[in-house]
User: What shape does this take?
Amino acid sequence: MSNDAVTVRVPGRVNLIGEWIDFSGGTVLPMPIRAEITLTRTANGTGTDVVRSAEFNSEARFDIDAPALRDWSDAIRGGLQAARAKGWISGGQDVSVRSDIPVGQGLSSSAATIVATLKASRPQSETDDVALAQAARRVENAFLGVPCGIMDQMAVAVGRRGHVLALDTRDCSFELVPLPEDWEIVVIQSGVQRELADGSYKARQLECKTAMDVLGTADLCHADPAEFAGLLDPVAKRVRHVWSEGQRSLAAIAALKARDRAAFGALMVESHQSLRDNMEVSLPVMDRMVEDALELGAVGARLTGAGFGGCIVALVAPERAGTWWAALQSRHPQIKRAD
Ligand code: GLA
Assistant: This one.
């Protein structure tokens, strides 16, 4: 165990397609964005963790076993507690973070913070990023109380810029597929904040869990749709989304590898419609942004992440991106790019 300061950088992520299926056997297609968190950790030889955030302009001290408080420090402290439980570090730590990943916009600032804390804490002999992502998910589930899947942690731990991570969430096997040069991915913040720990994520997840219990499988994406006949709404609608999104994301991998931009874009549009009508996680403002993005010439557009606010993602022809963005912004002055 070394007491030297360790600095790591971990990006946020955007999901291109495969939404709300990373805890039901689906394959998802996230990729890192440019925004990232820079985190520095040093052992301080006390029984106290001291965490500092440039964005929140805040410094806070906690007993090393202090529980989650639902504030910005939770992701760091949860990561430190997991790293101590693994024997990677011991005692109190000084941690400072600087990040330009927008918070509460569905770009995985929380997953990036936990992954960064673990990466800055592990010994050099530990190189398994998949195991690290799985440990980060446990922090999210058990410490922060968010019952999320594995997509975000894997995307930020093993993703590579300019590549789409085709991730099979059943076993974390993955492929990094280069994004074709004539595909521009634009990530657009709606300005509507959302909070995964506030209950809406859990409520939708519980409905999926009900379907899993009734059907006797956690792998809804690979279940036989004939078995869905007896389900009642809203559970039936959620399963309709999950199963169809599983099919769409597999088709999207084929379209990506064939460099078929139009086919990929059409799948994004279908994904949004299902998130709106079956999963019911969109908002009127997000629907309007998607409709306008398409009307102004995007090849595909959809909400990305858990929904209830956050971002939309659009696929655009690079030569049209500048004028397209200006036109979209004139219809939605509050939006910002986050890719
Ligand atoms: C959040 C969760 C992920 C995933 C998405 C929806 O980002 O953290 O695990 O479920 O929502 O696709």
Remarks:
- Residues 19-20, 22, 148-149, 151-152, 305-306 surround alpha-D-galactopyranose (CB under 6 Å).
- The first strand starts at residue 6 and ends at 15.
- The longest helix spans residues 235-257.
- The chain is about 40% helix and 20% strand.
